[in-house]
Amino acid sequence: MILNTELEHKGNLVPARIVSYRKNVDSLFFTCANNVVLQLTVRRDSVLRFRYSTSGNFEPDFSYAISKYASRGYNQLDVVEEKETYKVTTKKLICHISKADLRVAIFDSADNSVLCEDELGFHWEESYQFGGDIVKMSKSSHDGESYYGLGDKPVDINLKGKRFENWVTDSYAYTKETDPIYKAIPFYIGLNHKKAYGIFFDNSFRTFFDFCRDRRNVTSFWAQGGEMNYYFIYGPEMSQVVSRYTDLTGKPHQLPPLWALGYHQCKWSYYPEKKVMEVANKFRQLSIPCDAIYLDIDYMDGFRCFTWNKEYFPDPKRMVSELTDIGFKTVAIIDPGIKIDSNNPIFKEGLEKGYFCKRADGPYMKGKVWPGECYFPDFTNPKVREWWAELYKELIEDIGIKGVWNDMNEPAVMDVPGKTFPDDVRHDYDGNRCSHRKAHNIYGMQMARATYQGLKKYSYPQRPFVITRAAYSGTQRYTSTWTGDNVATWEHLTIANIQTQRLAMCGFSFVGSDIGGFAEQPTGELYARWIQLGAFHPFFRTHSSGDHGDQEPWSFGKSITKIVKKFIELRYQLLPYMYTAFWRYANEGIPMLKSLVLFDQNDVHTHYRNDEFVVGEKILVCPVTEPNARGRRMYFPYGDWYDYWTHELVEGGQELWVDADLDSMPVFVKAGAIIPKYPIQQFVGEKKIEQLKLDVYFNLGKDDSQLYEDSHDGYDYIKGRYSHRIFTLTGKQNSLTLQQVKTGKHFSSYETMEIKFIGLPFKITSVELNGEAYDHKSNKTNGSSIIFPTDFSDIVITGVPEQKNPS
Fold first, then answer.
1. Strand 466-468 versus strand 403-406 pairing type
2. Which residues of the chain carry a pLDDT beneath 50?
3. In terms of DSSP bridges, do strands 631-636 and 654-659 run parallel, antiparallel, or are they unpaired?
4. ω before 236 within 30° of 0 (cis)?
């Protein structure tokens, strides 16, 4: 007989005393008296994995986030049982595990300084409604500790004092306070007394993070289901933490085609065909570089995926071919919802093969999106991903589409609470069947993965290009991304700057924003300032909602068109620099964009800076984010910096006013840098690169720069057909030495380099090339540049100090 129907609330449960310990190669198991088990796995000397079970048994070990190519191995693993703790030591870390309550404290093995320690540590609540546990972790926050990361959160760079939720959400016209939005990246970086560590909470349920908001000296994270499963990643440099996290969750599977780093033009929507061609031809008439034009949902027949509206686009293959002839690559949108339509062969096949998501009791998951009522593929099923990849055959191989843009893949559903699937939808989860509570955050990631697999197959021998709106950790392996449906406001210009920095800090460098704003209409001034910022983002695309007016570079009058053209042209000149930065990202996990704190964590003045960032390793940028501004104050990191426009030298470690009328923006180059440049092209491949330009910025001492090149598409670079040049610049009071070491089997199309020397403290009197005198006067250009053969080994320039005018 049951009389009490009140739910018993047990509150937080905690581990009891450790009663046993065992070791299995790189994994250590600590079992408590109440059956709680901690599995500590040493993946690297600097990467530890902590995995907890409350029942004595672990779920099957499966993650969409962890790359199968992630580095593993360590140089030391010692376990010592002490009176009150177990002490685990690697080459980089010392980890103490309390026998009394399983709490963890982690120290730097070099100096025994504390890095991160549990407050209450692991604890949990039982979930009567869903079963399983609500798993929680709390850690002590040290004085002065700062926090960074969490993907696309539209708030200030430093997260301290804030609380966040990770639940991938279609957030049209979000604001600086909107949370959650489009991505769930449960990774953050702690910076504690000049030492950085990262924590990646690999749990795809709805997760939460609190950075000292609820309790002043405590940071915590928790999930509404699944395991407490996190990775501790040590630096001590922030850049090392980011690189190791990116290695763990995966670097891009290949370089993008170079055109993908060019300028892209998009709108909801360009149709019919006449309008598409009109826009494309206008770019060429005005000589404004552009590599890609986009087709939004109106190219489809009734918004049905993988179809064409033959009224608007009677012959898409011919149109795409004509666009190709004038240098445009065509990118098409594909959403996940498949319209319920018995005449649609894709719908029929998906239905017959059981590829659509179902509710708990058997009915299909039905939801309204652009085509009307739809069913949705279960992209967590590998057979569905294979099927979806095959659907791209006609679009890519036959029609000639060069890229695919996955939208609405949160998954977004119209006219329902929560704007997505209900929790009871079931998913295959690669054989680990689960509800939507677990699969929601990775749904868009797995759609992008399937799209990537289709494009890689049918674009071959060219490289695939995919864009996604929704993402979970690891999505960067397959695709680029953008920051979602923003708004044409000055605040959103600031937000776009912060979001791209934050995503790059979280392993996702191939990112940009909808330039000018998706919703509403920008002024010409705002659009120009946004283009200036976008020219330094890896993904460089204007996109807008068609019902708010035109948003092409020529839409705001001749003066704005001139400014926009100037910065798009600058982007095309800097393509070899951007491509080299991408190569370093894809090979080493080094982010292409660096917040100032990531660039120089030892300077406390960088810890709360939002606006300034470094592109690659050498270019410092600070956008103007207010109307009617003729300049702005900005902070310069330590070191010397040349104004890109005037070549004036600025000493770092201070905040200064920088003039920047509307036709300019603050751009600075690190002293000692060598910046490679291509000639301006209307699209990638328009011209044969017959000469490379190098801008050499003088600095006392020794500095290195790099240049990576290959054929800019295809896979020959994997076979060694690339060119990697390391330039070493040694500056003295009366001389400069430039050395070059080249590796790789790729032969550049150019035979000479035009080298411009900036900031020399002396007047050139002689030049040596590879140890012999070189006639620099007859090889001098009209400016201050000198022409040299491409494959020089060393150049020595000497001179006499410039005479300063008496004051």
1. parallel
2. 807
3. antiparallel
4. yes
* Residues 163, 213 contacting (CB under 8 angstroms): yes
pLDDT of residue 12: 84
Residue 362: CB atoms within 10 A of its CB come to 7
Count of beta carbons in the 10 Å neighbourhood of residue 90: 21
User: Beta strands 480-482 and 511-512: pairing type?
Assistant: parallel
Contacts of 733 (CB under 8 A, 6+ apart): 700, 761, 762, 801
Cis check for the bond before 186: say yes or no (omega within 30 of 0). no
d(CA 652, CA 642): 10
The answer to whether 798 and 734 are in contact (CB under 8 A) is: yes
HSE at residue 374, side-chain half, CA atoms within 13 A, is: 25
Burial of 773 (0-12, 13-18, 19+ CB in 10 A): exposed
Report the pLDDT value the prediction gives residue 804, as an integer from 0 to 100: 64
Instruction: Give the single-character DSSP code of 394.
Output: I
Residue 213 structure tokens: 């908001």
Residue 705 token pair: 């720069």
Helix extents (H) in 523-679 = 524-534, 558-573, 575-588, 596-599
Helix/strand/coil percentages in the chain, nearest 5: 20, 35, 45
Whether residue 407 lies in the annotated active site: yes
C-alpha to C-alpha distance for 636 and 621, rounded to whole angstroms: 10
pLDDT of residue 807: 46
User: How far is it, in rounded angstroms, from Cα 742 to Cα 725?
Assistant: 4
Beta strands in 180-262 (DSSP E): 183-184, 187-192, 195-201, 207-211, 218-223, 228-234
**Other Cβ atoms within 10 Å of 607 Cβ, number:** 17
Burial class (CB in 10 A: 0-12, 13-18, 19+), 520: middle
From the candidates 273, 298, 410, 617, which is the catalytic residue?
A: 410
Type of residue numbered 497: N
> DSSP assignment of 496-522, as one string?
HHHHHHHHHHTT--SEE-EET-SBS--
Evaluate whether 698 touches 734 at the Cβ level (below 8 Å).
no
User: Encoding tokens for residue 800?
Assistant: 């006499």
| 202 labelled catalytic | no
Q: Is residue 78 among the annotated active site residues?
A: no
Among 101, 152, 210, 407, the active-site one is 407
Which of 379, 513, 471, 512 lies closest to 167, judged by CA?
A: 471
Geometric angle at alpha carbon 240, from 237 and 245, rounded to 5°: 130
pLDDT of residue 547: 78
Cis ω before 252 (30° cut-off from 0): no
Nearest alpha carbon to residue 589 among 670, 512, 476: 476
Q: Would the pTM count as exceeding 0.85?
A: yes
Preceding omega of 154 cis (within 30 degrees of 0): no
* Cβ partners under 8 Å of residue 558, min gap 6: none
The residue annotated as part of the active site, out of 179, 378, 428, 485, is 485
